[in-house]
Design goal:
22% strand, elongated, 10 helices, single chain, 362 residues, three-stranded antiparallel beta sheet, alpha+beta, binds cobalt (II) ion
Length: 362
């Protein structure tokens, strides 16, 4: 039901770039352009061929029933070759008289080589053609992201009720995951980060068997996946009573988070939003400890366009969803990150995460 406008947007983009035909193999891009919700899993063997006239979905027998059901009423023709689907797609392109084929920059090299050997004509590589279309979310995509964000908020609230000294990071991560899955998350959006004490100073610490101690930061970065769409949120607690140093770092990061959210608006360059939040941390002497970009787009993938960082070339488009996640990481001591999911609108940013941001001592 969503395929037609998406295909139209992709075709406009292909025409602008002078592309005759594209063979998509990235799972999130295929899921997006087909609009097939119940066909894709991470192991799927499939390809989508798009030209100004053609929309063909190639897969194998394991997915044929699901694909044929999903394609009813859409512009997609389903092909289930007995042989390699790339051989079949290239043979059909030859019959159609197509002499130039584009592949995505993300295609694995072995597959690139195989398709190059099969296709009669020239191959070119294009970057981000579907990803750029995917930035702007349709209302039902926004609803799914909002549902995923609500699950994240509820999981945080659940964990606040049980976390404490003596638990391991892994136990907390499992509580988050189990809560989200039990309450409607198809999967977790990514492996949660539960980082305590000195581990919280590593921006992407992951999870260990470290026992959480009193007087430490505990950083929780996690997300749900609802009907394919991700959420992403980070909160940082203090276990026990916060010291002045804990409070100073947390307050600076919160101010940067709020300034960053305040700078979100359709049309604003991602690097300008990053600069606003970064300036807050620099003014407080924490600039050197904010070592990553301010945020990233979120949708079918946990990291997608636009980028919101110092070197970003993207502008925020109306309907995009981005994270705003400043952090300060003091090696050997600990770190704080406060991350919210924000929908980009004409008048500003609409925050989708509603968990408390003030410093929680637990
Ligand atoms: Co994030």
């Amino acid at each position: 039901m969503h395929a037609e406008p998406r295909l139209a947007a992709l075709r406009r983009r292909l025409t602008q770039d002078g592309v005759q035909a594209i063979l998509l193999t990235g799972v999130s891009n295929m899921r997006y352009v087909t609009g097939f919700d119940d066909v894709f899993d991470p192991m799927i063997n499939a390809a989508c061929l798009v030209t100004p006239e053609i929309a063909r979905f190639y897969t194998d027998h394991r997915y044929s029933e699901a694909a044929e059901e999903a394609a009813v009423g859409t512009p997609w023709a389903v092909r289930i070759p007995d042989d390699s689907l790339y051989i079949e797609a290239c043979a059909e392109l030859h019959e159609d008289g197509v002499t130039e084929l584009a592949l995505e920059a993300s295609v694995p090299y072995g597959r690139f080589k195989f398709i190059s050997e099969q296709f009669v004509g020239s191959i070119r590589v294009v970057e981000h053609v579907v990803e750029e279309v995917r930035q702007v979310k349709e209302s039902h995509e926004l609803e799914r992201i909002e549902s995923a964000a609500r699950l994240t908020d509820r999981a945080f609230d659940h964990v606040l009720g049980l976390v404490g000294p003596g638990m391991t990071e892994r136990e907390v991560a499992l509580e988050l995951e189990f809560f989200m899955r039990r309450n409607g998350s198809d999967d977790i959006a990514f492996d949660p980060i539960v980082a305590s004490g000195p581990n919280s100073a590593k921006p992407h610490a992951g999870v260990s068997d470290r026992v959480i101690g009193v007087g430490e930061f505990l950083k929780l970065d996690f997300g749900a996946r609802f009907e394919g769409y991700c959420s992403d949120m980070t909160r940082t607690l203090v276990i026990g009573s916060a010291t002045d140093r804990h409070r100073e770092i947390h307050a600076a990061v919160l101010e940067a988070n709020q300034a960053g959210i305040g700078a979100v608006k359709a049309g604003v360059p991602g690097k300008d939003v990053d600069a606003v939040a970064r300036a807050v941390l620099e003014s407080k002497g924490f600039g050197e400890f904010f070592t990553h970009g301010l945020g990233h787009g979120v949708g079918l993938d946990i990291h997608e366009l636009p980028t919101v960082g110092k070197r970003s070339h993207d502008s925020l488009r109306n309907g995009a969803v981005v994270t705003i996640e400043p952090g300060v990481y003091i090696p050997g001591f600990g770190g704080v990150r406060i991350e919210d999911l924000v929908a980009v609108e004409e008048t500003g940013g609409r925050v989708l995460s509603s968990s408390p941001r003030e410093l929680i001592e637990i």
